[in-house]
């Protein structure tokens, strides 16, 4: 069982700006981030249904991002910014501390051969939490019970963050979720809340501070 002492400290300073990086401006407080947005179904729907929120949705794979961008061009929600980048350097360079109200990581790659690359096992997790406002939430969804079990263990023993785990019942948020639900596979959500007063080593760190 890991504890915080077993996780190496994240080094934001080693990450270069993503290619073509543009520092986003934040129109308001309701800033939402989706990591691994795929072809963007959830981001597009969320943006349409929540016009008062500003959503940044990041996808690393070029082919998926192109489909996402095409759908966005025809839909053109002004409160959605699709980003083609690796989420880690983008978050390091773009986001000030306590800037996010909500984070979504929906059906992440299970990384069967590389558990250290699963989001809740990565040192980056602590940096990501430092970008969340107090009481902000992070929603993780997966169809892999062991992935969610492991994420729960990390939340309890490493990150010491409160969460609620539930089954996906009526949601059909992403193409992966639609596929798994159609096959009758059980899918689950973990919703993590950042408590007031939660501290990380990155609480005052902002790479692009003026
Ligand atoms: C299994 S797919 C799920 C896509 C979508 N969320 C869905 O449920 O349909 C996981 C996605 O995360 C993206 N991804 C993985 N690591 C990433 C990273 N570091 N930054 C941005 N995207 C990433 C992959 O390219 C892939 O499209």
Short description:
The chain is of the alpha/beta class. It has six helices and seven strands.
What layout of secondary structure does this protein have?
Blueprint: E1 31-35, H1 41-49, E2 54-59, H2 62-75, E3 80-84, H3 87-94, E4 100-106, H4 124-130, E5 132-142, H5 145-159, E6 163-167, H6 175-182, E7 188-193
Parallel strand pairs: 1-2, 1-4, 2-3, 4-5
Antiparallel strand pairs: 5-7, 6-7
The structure holds S-adenosylmethionine.
Question: What does it look like?
Answer:
This protein is α/β, with parallel strands linked by helices and 210 residues long. It has two domains: 28-94, Vaccinia Virus protein VP39 (Rossmann fold), CATH 3.40.50; 106-202, Rossmann fold (3-Layer(aba) Sandwich), CATH 3.40.50.150. The chain has six helices and seven strands. The chain has helices at 41-49, 62-75, 87-94, 124-130, 145-159, 175-182, and strands spanning 31-35, 54-59, 80-84, 100-106, 132-142, 163-167, 188-193. The protein has a seven-stranded mixed beta sheet, with helices on both faces. It starts with 30 loop residues before the first strand and ends in a 17-residue tail after the last strand. The model has no long low-confidence stretch (mean pLDDT 95). The structure holds S-adenosylmethionine.
């Amino acid at each position: 069982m890991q504890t915080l002492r077993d996780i190496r400290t994240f080094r934001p300073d080693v990450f270069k700006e993503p290619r073509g990086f543009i520092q986003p401006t934040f129109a308001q407080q309701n800033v939402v981030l989706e990591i691994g947005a795929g072809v963007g179904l959830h981001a597009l729907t969320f943006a349409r249904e929540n016009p008062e929120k500003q959503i940044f949705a990041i996808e690393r794979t070029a082919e998926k991002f192109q489909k996402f961008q095409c759908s966005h061009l025809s839909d053109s929600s002004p409160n959605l910014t699709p980003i083609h980048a690796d989420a880690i350097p983008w978050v390091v360079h773009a986001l000030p501390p306590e800037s996010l109200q909500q984070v979504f990581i929906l059906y992440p790659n299970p990384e069967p051969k590389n558990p250290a690359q699963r989001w809740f096992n990565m040192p980056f997790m602590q940096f990501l939490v430092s970008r969340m406002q107090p009481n902000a939430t992070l929603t993780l969804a997966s169809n892999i019970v062991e992935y969610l079990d492991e994420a729960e263990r990390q939340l309890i023993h490493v990150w010491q963050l409160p969460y609620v785990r539930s089954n996906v019942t009526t949601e059909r948020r992403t193409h992966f979720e639609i596929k798994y639900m159609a096959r009758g596979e059980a899918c689950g959500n973990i919703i993590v809340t950042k408590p007031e007063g939660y501290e990380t080593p990155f609480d005052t760190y902002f790479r692009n501070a003026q």
